[in-house]
Here is the input.
Amino acid sequence: MPNFLVEPRVKGNPIMQQMAEVIIAAFAEAPPSIPPSKVHRLQQATRKRSNAMDEGRSAKIQLPADAVFRGHHTVLLEMKIRAFFKELQLKKPAIDKLWELFKTGIVEQRELVKLRDTRDVKIGRDHPEHTNHSFLDIASVLETNQSLFAHNKMALWSGGYAVSEFAQSLGYTCLESSLIGAAMERGKWYRSDETLKALWNYLSYEFVCQAAQSDIHMFVRNFDKNSVMFRIELPKLLKLQQQHGMRFRILWHVLVGDTENAHELKSLDRAGKLVSGEAAKYLFFDSPESAEDAMRAYYDGLSDKEAKRIKNRELVLSSSVQPKYRRVA
Here is the structure.
């Protein structure tokens, strides 16, 4: 262990002690994986701060973003991200830039979460005053290099991941089945840092921007006006329709089923009747209002015994995109 880590001037200063602990953790938790260059950067920052204090002046040192992570998590996440972009044939300078954006994005998101928790403000892609600009840049870059490309059968969803799996089983491309989405899901990037889950909202916005190329299909199991679909995706789609003169349609598919197994979900027709199999591909509604009406017709037609078996029925019926339905069931 480097001698400067146990020097009195380090031990007596909380900030320097914290930096020292990061380096110690890096050595202890993942000695073969921590590149010497990263440890060297931390050492330099610590020494620079120490020397400035010795000279009786303050120094504003930008702590490397690695220092806010635990060593082994940082390395594992970096390995996954670099491997993914290397597969996409990106050059090293571009990969380096993207990795820096991921690091700063995580730091930004942590600060935004603190702000939300302490001041009760809304954060995210749809709140410009509290937006994660690094995540915004990542999404823009990924859209440009077609990591978010949706081919010609693009789908959005709401109501649980099983809905996404259902749409994918019918041949649609959801965000999770795009190149970047599949990598994030398969590699579980957010296990390294929970704040990466917020990146989905930024990716979703760019994913939706492709809608002008073809019709877009909306698969829903509930109509929650606070969901990403209705807060971010649908407003963007409606704006794109105006810009492109309605060249594409927004088509709605309604699913029901109190299950996380995509194969057990069923589609509804316009009368609120169950339909399954290939027929589900061709069942869609032209508006969220008519789609929600069909879903509610289905639930209203259930017997008391059937209704009691559906655990999330009250939750589904208490959320709505239509004012006439905004009541607790």
